Every structure is written in C-alpha cells, then in structure tokens.
Amino acid sequence: LLFQILGAVILGFGIWILADKTSFIAVLQTSSPSLKTGAYILIGVGALTMLMGFLGCLGAVNEIRCLLGLYFTCLMIILITQVAAGLVIYFQKETLKEELSHIVGSLIENYDPLNDDERNLQGAWDYVQIQIACCGWTGAKDWENNEILINQSMTAYPCSCSNSSKDSQVDSGFCNLDVNGTATSADWPVHEQGCMDGVEKWLKDNLGVILGVCTGVAVIELLGMILSISLCKNIHSEDYTKVPKS
User: Which family does the entry's similarity section mention (predicted)?
Assistant: First the structure.
C-alpha cells in the first residue's frame, strides 16, 4: 500500500508539471523539451511503482516467489535510475543553468503583451517575477533587450517587476515611466534582484526538505527490496520443509 501511495505521488507530480500554467515550471516545460521528457518519465515511474506495489502485495499474500522477485528487480531498477538522474543533474548543473538562461533570455526579448499565442508562457513569467520579487534573469537590465521597450526608448517597464505600490494591481504587460526623452533600466521602479538569484535562494532555503524527501523515498525503496528478499527466503524455506522425507 505504501508503494502504491508513493507511486501515486510521483505520478501526480509528473502530471502537475505537464498541466501547470502559472509558475516557473510552466516557463521551463513550454520552452524545454527535456523537462517534458522528464515529466513523462515521472508519470511512467509513478505508474510502474503503483503496479509494483500491487504485485508486491499480491506476491506476499499468496506467497508467489516470482512476483516478489519481479517486485525486487523493478524496485532496484527504479532506485538505480533515480540515483543516476540525480548524478546527471549534479554534474550537468552548469549546462542546465546556461540552457535556462537562454530560455528566459529569449522569453524576455520577445515578450509582447499583445501576443495571444504566448500569453500562458508570458503570464507564467510575470507570476514568477511577482512571487519571487525579482526582475529579469540576472537583473532588470535583461529587459533592455526587449524589442517593444527598445522602440519606446525604455520609457516603459514590465509591471510584474515593479516595486511601486501604484502598480500593485497590474500584474502583466508594461507600465509607463513618467519621464521625458529616453531612460534606462536604472530609472525603473523595479526590484533589483534577478530571478536567478531568487530561484537559487529558494533552492538553498528548501534544500533540506528536498534532500529529506529524496532520502525518504530511497529508504522506502530499500526497505521494500529487503522485505521482498526476506519473504522470498521464507517462502522457499517453508516449501522445502513440506517435502516428505524418503
């Protein structure tokens, strides 16, 4: 039952990544095929874990060694895959960071409030900037590459970046700056922190929780493997003692 619950959680997390349209995950999954692939893998692993939990229960109740062996093998494969994925993410973190920087940079450069085709993606990025209280990826200067703001001589700025109370009711699009002539991002009433720093700070603050969940899942899987092996041995011993002596 525990593994079926675990599988349901993993499955639900994968579905959430694909369905989410209002957070930083939406920015990533819309722009990065690798995250979509990861979501499908999570869905597959979740479904497989639920199936293995059912087979493990069936094998334990009916003392079927074949099902318990299959249960052990699948758990071992899942655990090895999780460890491998964690190692890949750790050693490729700089590459992933560069890819993420390119994705967000392209989004900011082409941001257009009148573009209905990209409204969900742009809305997700506005949501990120509001929630994290940040502006751009490395800072507000990133928005100086936006084509619309360039055409307006930087006399407007993204409303979702604003740190002014007068813009608190506007969460998307551009707000006008009260200046004559031209301006720069340094003149905007926006947050100084870039979203990259905000995301990194969030990860550091929640690192203990993330590691705790991952460790807990790994421990549960190891206990399941140990339990399945023990049951297999007990079933073998019981069957052997029932054989009549000659």
Answer: Belongs to the tetraspanin (TM4SF) family.
Q: Which of 177, 173, 197 is nearest to 187 (CA)?
A: 177
Q: Which of 140, 148, 228 is nearest to 185 (CA)?
A: 140
pTM of the predicted model, to two decimals?
0.63
The owner of tokens 């050693």 is: 91
Query: Is 6 domain-assigned?
Result: no
- Listed in sequence order, the DSSP H helices in the chain are 2-19, 24-31, 33-62, 65-91, 93-109, 119-132, 147-151, 195-205, 207-241
Pairing outcome for strands 174-176 and 156-158: antiparallel
- DSSP string spanning 137-165? SS-GGGGGG-HHHHHTTT-EEEGGGB--G
Work out how many domains the chain is built from and give that number: 1
Domain that holds residue 142: 95-242
pLDDT per position as a tens digit, 50-81: 777 676 677 667 777 777 777 788 778 877 87
